[in-house]
Amino acid sequence: MLSAGNPFPSFSLPNQDGKTTKLSDFAGHWLVVYFYPKDDTPGCTIQGKSFTATKADFDAAGIKVLGVSADDVTSHRNFSHKFAFTIDLLSDTDSTLMKTLGIGQAEWKGMKFWERTTFVVDPKGVIRKVYEKVNPEGHEKVLLDDIAGLKAKAA
Length: 155
Prior knowledge:
By secondary structure, the protein is α/β, with parallel strands linked by helices. It has five helices and nine strands; from the N terminus they run βββααβαβαββββα. It has a five-stranded mixed β-sheet. The mean pLDDT is 95.
């Protein structure tokens, strides 16, 4: 898996509205890219709701947030609308970005899924922190605190 100090790979993926989103769109901003297993499942719903509830805090701190899974645009659109998410969900249907990052896979009830993993990317596009096998409960607060610490070190 790519780790802190590596550049985050360039990407170009559609969001829930079909709009192409690229890494370069976030140049000059801190970025949280969280990968989750599947739309409209319990842990993934917790994460989407939590990031939506704290979006103003992330905005105030100058941090952009993106969710990514292998689900398609239609699935993301339905998931986003069902819970009124205010964050973008990107569709990596061929798992190219997840494979490039080296995110692990696990199996549950005979189904393979991508493990819940979060990357913190600095304004220059460098990975500053990686969280593996993330517990979705309270993860957004951990991120806000950790990024504040990373910003303080960089200043």
